[in-house]
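> forwarded from #structure-qc
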């Protein structure tokens, strides 16, 4: 169902153990609150990753909303998900810029052209999965691999908390985290379900108050990349931003040689999408297999559309899965609302600047919760499928891939191309599992899956 959501109960309350399913909704004022919470959850990463790649963040924000609407339409409203800026291309983009003009408009065009071609490849892979059958996904991504990918996606983002957000203001981060804990657990109704948003707002206000009472903070500044003295809340960009305006878009420059530098990201994106979709299926208790091909194709199509106008690559967002896990509200209505808000942000630089002014210390307290919950969804997949980790075919590559992601570890391929973090860990999990499975069969090593493991036993060979 794409529209015409059924009201859940009285539209106000959730009984213990109940969830709001994708085709349901609560009252519209509550859904607007959930939509706003999803915008907040995705905003930091969707804004930061384009900056790292040298692309316009306002374009990325606007097209994240467009991409989300397109995704929901393509999957027929069956998979609630937000599409934000992908981090899988960062290493390849830096390599492209080193070879094709650096941080210039010409370099921007080559970067978006290369990513556009990768989006086309991803869309074709999704179409193949949709028409050939989802069994190919089950063979490539059995529960042990899917759970591992979900876990490394969540835990692989830990370095963002540890290296960027938390050091910016340790005490505000700690207070924001604890306040969010208390709101989510102590309040069972609507207040508890928007605990992430409320925690962020409270952290923002505390940061503003700390500036007035304690003065500027001397700590790590993510904007300058070094320790200096700066205010926690800087509203200069808000004051100078226009109320209404189009972001700076550009046309892509297609170069196949440049696309080859980011092509390996397709593997990470496929695994990332499968992991996210499977995680949503686990949370909602629905069979999402018939829509896996559509989801992957949709990610590719939306990446093509976004980069055609100078935007950044898109992907389903782990941060928003964390919000759903915390709120138990999986309504696609919240995502349509979030998408519209994001588009308006893209067209209103002042509001975008206000959200972007959220202190990094506050984001540290929020993201440590969201990323941790995502990682534990991977463990949930393992438990429910009774994955046997006494079998080294399961344990060795999964453990190695998670550590590579958490590091994050960087692997250089020549002087201009590197894989690191989540992308490297995903490739090791998927490739390592299947390599060891072949080696185990050829060596005749006995596998000892857990009793009654069913799907996992078959997947482990």
């Amino acid at each position: 169902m794409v529209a015409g959501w059924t009201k859940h109960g009285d539209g106000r309350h959730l009984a213990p153990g109940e969830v709001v399913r994708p085709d349901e909704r609560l009252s519209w004022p509550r859904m607007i609150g959930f939509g706003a919470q999803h915008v907040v959850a995705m905003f930091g990463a969707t804004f930061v990753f384009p900056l790292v790649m040298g692309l316009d963040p306002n374009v990325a924000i606007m097209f994240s909303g467009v991409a989300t609407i397109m995704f929901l339409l393509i999957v027929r409203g069956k998979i609630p998900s937000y599409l934000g800026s992908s981090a899988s291309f960062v290493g390849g983009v830096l390599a492209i810029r080193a070879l094709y003009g650096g941080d210039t408009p010409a370099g921007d065009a080559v970067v978006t052209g290369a990513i556009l071609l990768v989006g086309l490849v991803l869309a074709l892979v999704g179409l193949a999965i949709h028409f050939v059958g989802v069994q190919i996904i089950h063979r490539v991504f059995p529960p042990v691999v899917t759970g591992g990918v979900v876990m490394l996606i969540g835990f692989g983002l830990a370095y963002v908390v540890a290296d960027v957000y938390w050091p910016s203001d340790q005490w505000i981060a700690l207070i924001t985290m604890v306040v969010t804990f208390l709101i989510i657990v102590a309040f069972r109704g609507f207040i508890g379900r928007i605990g992430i948003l409320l925690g962020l707002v409270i952290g923002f206000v505390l940061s503003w108050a700390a500036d007035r009472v304690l003065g500027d903070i001397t700590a790590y500044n993510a904007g300058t990349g070094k320790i200096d003295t700066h205010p926690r809340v800087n509203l200069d960009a808000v004051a100078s931003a226009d109320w209404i305006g189009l972001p700076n878009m550009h046309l892509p420059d297609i170069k196949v040689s440049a696309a080859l530098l980011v092509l390996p990201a397709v593997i990470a994106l496929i695994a990332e999408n499968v992991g996210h979709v499977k995680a949503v299926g686990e949370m909602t208790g629905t069979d999402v297999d018939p829509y896996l091909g559509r989801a992957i194709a949709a990610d590719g199509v939306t990446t093509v559309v976004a980069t055609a106008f100078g935007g950044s690559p898109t992907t389903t967002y782990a941060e928003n899965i964390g919000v759903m896990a915390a709120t138990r509200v999986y309504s696609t209505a919240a995502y349509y609302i979030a998408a519209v808000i994001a588009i308006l942000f893209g067209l209103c630089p002042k509001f975008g600047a206000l959200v972007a002014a959220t202190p990094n210390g506050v984001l540290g307290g929020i993201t440590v919760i969201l990323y941790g919950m995502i990682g534990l969804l991977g463990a949930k997949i393992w438990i429910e499928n009774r994955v046997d980790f006494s079998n080294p075919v399961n344990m060795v590559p999964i453990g190695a891939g998670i550590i590579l992601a958490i590091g994050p570890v960087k692997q250089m391929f020549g002087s201009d191309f590197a894989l690191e973090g989540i992308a490297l860990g995903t490739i090791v999990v998927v490739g390592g599992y299947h390599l060891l499975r072949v080696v185990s069969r050829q060596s005749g090593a006995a596998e000892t899956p857990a009793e009654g493991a069913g799907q996992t036993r078959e997947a482990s060979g």
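QC bot note: The longest strand covers residues 217-221. Strands lie at 6-7, 24-25, 83-85, 217-221, 226-230, 314-316, 410-413, 417-420.
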